[in-house]
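Box 3.1 — From sequence to structure: DNA-directed DNA polymerase
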Amino acid sequence: MVAIKANAVERFIKRPDPDITAILVYGPDRGLVSERARALLGHFATAPDDPFTVSILDEADIAKSADGLIEELNAIAFGAERRTVFVRSGSGAAPSTLAAALAAPREGILLVEAGDLKPSSAARKAFEAAGDAATLPCFADTPGTLGELIDTSLAQMRQTITPEARQNLLGRLGADRLASRAEIEKLMAYAGEGARITAADVDEATADAGELSLDALVDAVFEGSLKPAELAFERCLQAAMAPARILAAAIRHALRLHESLVAGEGGASPERAIASLRPPVYFRRKDSHFRQMRRWSESTVRRALELLAEAEIDGRVGHMPTASASRVLLRLTLLPKPERR
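Predicted structure (token representation):
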């Protein structure tokens, strides 16, 4: 078994080891898992949708016994040197089937796409026990890998990006590789071939009105600005944004504010505390974050998180999520707090 380290996965995908005939692609970033599995499928099969050279199976197809999977792996590939069997196994189910197929003589390539498998997963253990298999972990993107994704994508259309726009874009990416790629491609199409992309381009191409209102809402709440908070809350509701999503955004923001306050109380300057946050604070929101750090303390943000969590539960149990969200956001906006010196 070859356990490919996370930082070597891209190199392996571009040039897989010819001695490896079984590959497990897994991890928490389902978009990245799917993208890499598809890239490997394209390497092994010139026509991934050709049923004469590729067999695409799911968990239900392999759940009953290993015989069917082994038969597919040894089936003749018309028009190709060998058949590729691509198994989508989100939870790593049917590990005994996979283990049997890995242990049996086979002519074809076995490629398995799975979800976030723990080290104790039977599917991972099956691949780790096979001498001609490799496991490829796909962890969430870092600012570094997202930067590489931006650069390689823009290069395809001979585009460049300003440092300000790059930071802006990085702040909007990262939850899922496919979603990140879609946002980048949307920006590329908006800017046009050969363009120099600015921060304004990023705003226009990637932010919808609801997202901008949500950012404005959490900043206004934690700054204590009542009228802007009320207006932003109404805009979020007009954009059909669920109250649970609004509260989740407020909780995420409070956690980031708490992190920067902890760094500040540990001796870091406000500038260094904010710069340490990942993903980076969007440049247009930095001034607001500074003001929030003066208004809040580590202990009061912890209290805010408690109130937000209670409101989230109250919205689910009481079946009045909009009212619960409105009450807690108003309370946080009006909460009197002395300026931090």
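Summary of the box: The first strand starts at residue 2 and ends at 3.
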